[in-house]
Structure prediction request, 452 residues.
Amino acid sequence: MDVKTLVLARKQEILDNLTTLVSFPSVLNKDEAPFPFGKDNADCLNAALRICNDYGFKTVNLDNYCGYAEIGSGEKLIGVIGHLDVVPVADGWNTPPFTATIVNDRIYGRGTSDDKGPVACSMAALKIVQDLRPNLTKRIRLVMGSNEETGSACLAYYVKKEGHIDMGFTPDGAFPCIHGEKGMLKADFECASEHIHNAMAGIAANVVPNKVTMDIDKDTFDPNKLNDYFETVNINYNLTDAGSHWHLEVMGISAHASTPDAGKNAISYAIMGLHEAGLVDTFIDFYASKIGIDTNGKGFGVDFKDDYGDLTLSIGVLSQDNSTITGTIDIRFPVTENSTHVSETMTASMEKEKARLIIKGASEPLYYPIDSPLISLLTEAYVEVTNDMVNKPETMGGGTYARGINNCVAFGGVFPDSEDCHMHDSNEFAVIDDLLKQTEIYVLALLKLIDA
Prediction:
């Protein structure tokens, strides 16, 4: 029986397991001791371990930071490193975000594409490999973390307790394979505003916000010009007369911060609309000159690019305390750059600004040569299933577990030229046939890594 047939036989099982995982609202909550990332995250992890235990895998829970399921024996360890936590949900869902809902050929729910769907595929892949190779002389370990979206302390805890892997992948990127990940830099800005109050937007720093609200003093801008701007850029908004001030609500389109051009940042369009409408304000002036609606960092002088990709910049969360507005900055910089150059260039660009830039942290790029053994083996598995000889391994802006554990790269589950699955957005989904194809690829990939 070929691998595709074995996968098809487990179709309902994969969907059932994914439905179970999606049912847990596993969003970070640090206020639920003794659970490091919240009880929902721990419950989701334990549910995943129960599924793996029912498969006959060895299972271990590492203090609710993460857990793993293992098959085989021997000194060499092959790793599949996935995560069960998800980003928060915002408005705009057509189905309950924590109830997996099948509509036609899709399964909707938070985590279906990032990363609970790929984890469910990986579980099935391990079971099929175990059935095909009952006497494995290498171990395969599915590691499942609980805070990849909010810092990956779970993986750091795993490495501290268990060490690194000899070879493996995280099913949290794209096919054919990811041979490089851009560097990441996190920062905040602070700037006073004379005429804006109660500014609020965003659910997470790594999500392009789809809504912003704020109050603006009366007689400080031209509402007609504001309307003209939003009509020109095709942005929905509501402007309400609240007596002493205007209440503005602007709607954009969410996206992952690593691909900000895939969305429309509600914050940026709101600020640029007010700027075009004539609002004279320190914060408006700062934002318009340094950020605007660009996503390349040009205003900060960091519009860097190389052969593998361009720098991207996204503003994710906006808040206000008295007159001070604070915003988060998420930057993904090219694999040939370094965080020191990026941060120093940004800091230098702020010398004449009436605003403050606070660098919060950074991680350097990850890079494997495209012809390295790991990339080659994984790509071979992808090609054998898809017959795709056109698309090649690529780099990406998203940061994955591959940064935190040796000998690991991102591999799937987004396919080339596939439709936007609304990862980190409302109405996230996975195409069911793609989940099955992904599982088949992972089975072949694991067999290749076993034989390497």
In short: The two ends are 23 Å apart (CA to CA). The longest strand covers residues 183-192. Residues 197 and 322 are 7 Å apart (CA to CA). Residues 3-180+367-451 form a domain with the Aminopeptidase fold (CATH 3.40.630.10).
